[in-house]
Amino acid sequence: MNIKPFNDTSYEQFLNEWKIMGTKCKKCGALALPPRPICVSCYRSELEWIEFKGTGKLAAFTSITVAPPNMAKAGYGRDNPYVLGVVELDEGVKAVVRIVGVDAKKPEQIKVGTPLKAEFLTKGEGPTRQNSLAFKP
Ligand SMILES: [Zn+2]
Q1: How far apart are alpha carbons 61 and 29 in whole angstroms?
Q2: Distance 34 CA to ligand 1 centre (A)
C-alpha cells in the first residue's frame, strides 16, 4: 500500500476524493488536521492517516472583513465578509476552517458550541475540480 506523505498536497488530494484526512501519532495518539509531518504533541514522525467523520462543534470564530488576496478575488471583503472558525471535531482535534451557512454580517447571531457538519466547497469541474473544506450548522 502506498502511503501518501503527510503534507498539504496529500490533504488536498484527499479532499478532492471527498475525504477529510489528518494525521494520528502512533506513539501518543495526538491528532492533527490538516496533517503535519511531525507530531504536534511529542514531535515524533511515526504517523498514520486517520479519516475524520466531519462532525464537531464551533469553538471560536471571527468574521473576516479584510480578505486575503485569494478570498478578495472571490468577492469577499468589507462589504461581503466571511466567517473563519475553529471547529472542535468529535475526534477531539481543533481545525481552523471556513464556516458557511451563517450570516457573516451578523456575527452576533453565531453561537460558540453550535454543532457543525463538514461541507465540501467545490471549484471547477471534471479533472480540474478542487474541493476545499468548510463547516456549516
Ligand atoms: Zn505524538
Answers
A1: 27
A2: 15
CA 38 to CA 18: how far, in whole Å?
Answer: 24
Give kind and range of the element (H or E) at residue 34: none
In tens digits, the chain (137 residues) has pLDDT values of 568 999 999 999 999 999 999 999 999 999 999 999 999 999 999 999 999 999 999 999 999 999 999 899 989 999 999 999 999 999 999 999 999 999 999 999 999 999 999 999 999 988 889 999 999 99
Distance 43 CA to ligand 1 centre (A): 6
| Whole-prediction pTM | 0.91
Please tell me the distance between residue 92's alpha carbon and the centre of ligand 1 in angstroms: 14
Distance 5 CA to ligand 1 centre (A): 17
Task: Give burial (CB, 10 Å; 0-12/13-18/19+) of 89.
Answer: buried
